[in-house]
Design a protein that fits this description.
503 residues, alpha+beta, Rossmann fold, Elongation Factor Tu (Ef-tu), domain 3, 3 domains, 26% strand, globular
Length: 503
């Protein structure tokens, strides 16, 4: 079998290539250039020329052929332009997810095939397997990709395994999140050679083989662009425009009809006999994963829900019958960001100084205060803390909302600010993607899965509710910084990634 390894110049892809070579495969390396514009890349950090040089040295060391392909045109069209469009709308896309879906396992794979490859491998920390029956035999289904105009599979009666993708064995390096948009067709030709080992072992193997990339630092920048200053990068197309930064006080939420309605709806889904109100604020949790997700023995119930070995539903703060009966309008309400457009400021004239010069100032508002200015609401995202340049506070300041139309940023003080947390998110039906098509939810279904909305976030227990127009993800605990444009990704208790969707 001939395998193309995407050699990036990093230690992960280098070790992946070495392991494939040792396993007896016919391996060749392919380096892709996806970005020409050096004006937004910090000089001397992650520049593609250096990466290509290291990748070629690795290929020579291992003894495999090395090729180069320029995919910058398609990368700009499918990834960068999409980024600009999303940020202009006040959304926060993930370019690494797009890069994998549109470039590494699409355009890059097409080039690899022309060079004779049967499979393409990468240095991702994730695991791939196929679905097997009780006897250990692969479950085969008719291919669902490549449909003819009549809607029937172009492959006729050809059967294929059901491919599965799991978290990587290293909990601190798991990269399955970035592969959440891959299809069964893409997975059928994908290999992840280092998914079963951890980063220290990868480094050890690289040093033992004296690979040129053994001590190379991991890339921290945008996928195949490099380490960039994101606002500077975005300003290549998005015009800066000064606007106000508004700090929202706790008093606002006590009089907000929307906030109170969200509280009441969430409280209505608590089990009978539960005293008090639904939790509205999340505690701060580090997004550094420190331990592997343990297999708790639960299995997937294809009829809906996860059950443990005793057959009982896993613990959940919500009454699932009440959740299932909630109307779509109520789900839309609790999954919507708080609208701060009802906050208004009036000016007043006052006299200042010995000469009593007339000046204008904002009237005091008990609900909010204008605390500074910014250079464009599209450059900020919910949950952001850095780059606000607002002083005079004892605790950290976070972005809690953006108004792109009026160019306003809303902020709040402290990790437990009421505007920073939400318990539910909405994914439009057209934005849903199931890796396991055989597990796709149908309208009316309610299931329990674990979900993350950011790469480094520990998995969160959640209830997924499928309706005609959207899927709703109701978390057991409120989540900080839910942002439109992010990918929500859900996993089974056995660490298998099942699907994803754009918030």
């Amino acid at each position: 079998m001939k395998i193309c390894i995407g050699l990036s110049g990093g230690v992960d892809s280098s070790v992946a290539a070495l392991l494939l070579k040792k396993q007896g495969y016919d391996v060749f390396g392919l380096f892709m250039q996806n970005w020409h514009d050096a004006s937004t890349t910090l000089h001397g950090e992650c520049e593609w020329e250096e990466d290509r040089f290291v990748a070629e040295m690795v290929a020579r060391k291992i003894g495999i052929p090395f090729y180069f392909v320029d995919l910058s045109k398609v990368y700009r069209e499918r990834v960068v332009d999409y980024m600009f469009e999303e940020y202009a709308k006040g959304r926060t896309p993930n370019p690494d997810v797009l890069c994998n879906r549109e470039i590494k396992f699409a355009a890059f794979w097409e080039t690899a095939k022309k060079l004779g490859a049967d499979m393409v491998a990468t240095g991702h920390y994730c695991r791939k397997d196929t679905l097997k029956d009780a006897n250990g035999n692969e479950v085969l289904v008719a291919k669902t990709w490549g449909l003819n105009s009549d809607g029937k599979p172009a492959d006729g009666s050809e059967l294929t395994p059901i491919y599965r993708i799991f978290e990587g064995s290293d909990p601190n390096k798991d990269q399955s999140y970035f592969l959440c948009q891959l299809t069964q067709e893409q997975l059928s030709t994908a290999l992840f050679p280092i998914g079963d080992i951890d980063k220290p072992e990868v480094r050890r193997i690289a040093h033992e083989a004296d690979l040129p990339s053994a001590d190379k630092k991991d890339s921290q920048g945008i996928c195949f662009v490099g380490k960039v200053d994101l606002p500077t990068f975005l300003k290549q197309k998005l015009e800066p425009k000064e606007g106000n930064v508004v700090e929202v006080f706790d008093a606002y939420y006590e009089q907000s009809a929307m906030y109170q309605r969200v509280r009441n709806i969430l409280t209505s889904m608590l089990p009978d006999g539960c005293t008090g109100e639904a939790k509205m604020i999340s505690d701060y949790v580090s997004e550094t994963k420190t331990s592997a997700a343990a297999d708790d023995g639960s299995v997937i119930d294809l009829s809906g829900g996860n059950r443990n070995v005793s057959g009982k539903e896993e613990s959940c703060p919500w009454d699932l019958k009440k959740v299932a009966s909630l109307c779509d309008d109520d789900f839309d309400t609790i999954s919507r960001s708080i609208d701060y457009s009802d906050i208004h400021f009036e000016t007043e004239v006052y006299r200042s100084g010995k000469k009593h010069v007339k000046k204008t100032r904002w009237k005091e508002n008990p609900l909010a205060k204008i605390v500074g200015t910014h250079d464009g609401a599209q450059f900020y995202t919910i949950g952001q803390r850095k780059g606000l340049n607002i002083g005079g506070h004892s605790d950290s300041i976070f972005v809690i909302g953006t108004d792109i139309e009026n160019n306003i940023i809303y902020v709040g003080e402290g990790h437990r600010h009421k505007g920073l947390s939400r318990s539910c998110l909405r994914i439009p039906a057209e934005e849903l993607h199931w890796i396991r098509e055989d597990l796709r939810m149908t309208p009316g279904e309610v299931r329990r899965y674990r979900v993350r909305i950011r790469y480094r976030q520990p998995l969160q227990e959640a209830t997924l509710v499928m309706r005609e127009k959207a899927m709703y993800v109701l978390f057991d605990q409120p989540q900080r910084g839910i942002t439109p444009g992010q990918f929500a990704v859900w996993y089974a208790p056995n660490d298998e990634m099942l699907g994803s969707g754009v918030i």
